[in-house]
Fold this sequence. Notes:
Structural class: alpha/beta
CATH topology of the largest domain: Aconitase, domain 3
CATH architecture of the largest domain: 2-Layer Sandwich
CATH superfamily of the largest domain: Aconitase, domain 3
CATH class of the largest domain: Alpha Beta
Distance between the termini: 54 Å
Strand content: 15-25%
Shape: globular
Helix content: 25-40%
Strand order of the largest sheet: 5-4-3-6-7
Largest sheet: 5 strands, parallel
Radius of gyration: 21 Å
Amino acid sequence: MSGKTIIDKIWDAHVVANIDDATSMIYIDRHFIHEVTSPQAFSGLNNRGLKVFRPEKTVATADHNIPTRDQHLSIHDELSRVQVNTLNKNCQDHGINLYGLNHPYNGIVHVIGPELGITQPGMTIVCGDSHTSTHGAFGTIAFGIGTSEVEMVLASQCLILARPKRMRITIEGALSKGVTSKDIILYIISQISTGGATGYFVEYAGSAIRNLSMEARMTICNMSIEMGARGGLIAPDETTFDYIKGREQAPSENQWDKSVAYWKTLPSDPDAVFDKELVFDAADIEPMITYGTNPGMGVGISGRIPLLEEVDDTSKTSFMKSLSYMNFSPGEEMIGKEVNYVFVGSCTNGRIEDLRMFAGFVKGKKKADNITAWIVPGSKQVEAQAEKEGLRQILEEAGFEMRQPGCSACLAMNEDKIPAGKYAVSTSNRNFEGRQGPGARTMLASPVTAAAVAITGKIIDPRDLFG
C-alpha cells in the first residue's frame, strides 16, 4: 500500500462520517467571514431559530467594500455601510470575534488569519471567498464556499464534501533575479490554463517552493483557484514554524512542541501517489504580465501576445473577444505599452514583503506623471509595520500615496475603481472584464513589475532597471 499525500492526511483526520465512497462529512477547524457573503447566511440561521454552533471557531473582519480613505468617518456608500453594520450586529448577536473597521487587527481576511497565528498546519479552513486557498501555504486544506455552505458551517461546523483528486506541481531550481512567487503562479496558470487543475487539490513542491518565504508561498496558494483548483497547499517546514511562533493565537509555549511534532507528520510520504504530477524548471520563468481577461492569458514580460494561429481552435473566439476588450492585437509585444494606473495590494500581494519590494524598487526615484497609483496594505498591522519601517516616507518621497487597508481595487466594491478604457497594472489575482471597474483593462503582475511600471509609465522589463 502506498503512502499518503498531505491532502489525504488532513482530510482523513477531519472525517466525521462517510456518506458514501466518494463523499464525507468534514469537520471545519476555522471559519472566516466578512461583510459581503455572510448576511444571507445569518438570515438563514435566524429564520430557523438557530444559533452559531461553535462561535469561537469563527473569525470575522470587514474588508471587501470598506473605503481605503477616511475610515474614521461613516461609510459613504449606503450598501457598504449596511453590510458592515449588519456584520457588526450579527457578530454581536452570536458571540463571534470581530476585527471590524478601525480595529488594530482589521484587514483582508486572508491576511489577518496568518498574521494573527489563527492559520495553522493541518487545519481545515473555509470562508465565503474564493481565495481562501491562501491559507494552504501553511499546510492546510483551505477553500472558498458559497453562502448556503457558510450557513451550514455556522450551524454545524461541518460540510458535506466530495474528496478531491490530488495533483502535485513541482518547481525545481533557482529563480532568476526579478522573478517572484507571483511570477511563478502566473507562469503555471499560463502553462496549464484556467481549467487545468479543475477537480484537484494541488500540492506545490520542489526546491523553488521550499526556498520561498511564507508570504511568497501565500501568493502562490492564493491563486490556485485561478487554474480551476479547489485549493492549493504547501507542506509545512521550519520556515512555516518560524513564521507562526510567537504570534498572538499561535500555540502557547506549553503546547508548541506538541503542535510542531504533529505538524511534522503532515508532509506527503515519499511513496505517496498523486492523480497527476507536473514539473517545471524555475529557470524558465521570467517576470510575467497578463494581456487578456483571465489569469491564464499571460506571457513573459519580454514576450508577445500569441498569434491567432498559435491559439487552440476551441479558444480562438474567446481569445479575440478578450483582445478586443483590451484593445490589443495578436502578436503585439507587451513592452512599451502605456499604463494609466498601478494597484499594489489585495490578499495576493498586500503583505509587508510586497510593500517592501515595491518601496525598495522606487526608493530614490519618482512616479511617472501619467500614473495614478494606489498602494493599499492588506491589514492594519501591515500598515503599522510599513510606518515603522519608513516605507510610507519612501513612497511619499517618490510621489506615491499609501492608503488604508482593504480589498480596494482588487474587485472595486468601494470607490477604488479604474475608469473605463484605462489600463491598470495590478498585483491582485483577477483580470476579468470589469473586475476593477466597468470597462477597466487590467494586467496582472508582481510588485516588482508594478514598481517598474509606476516609475516609467509603461510596461517595462523590471530587470532592465536593476543596477
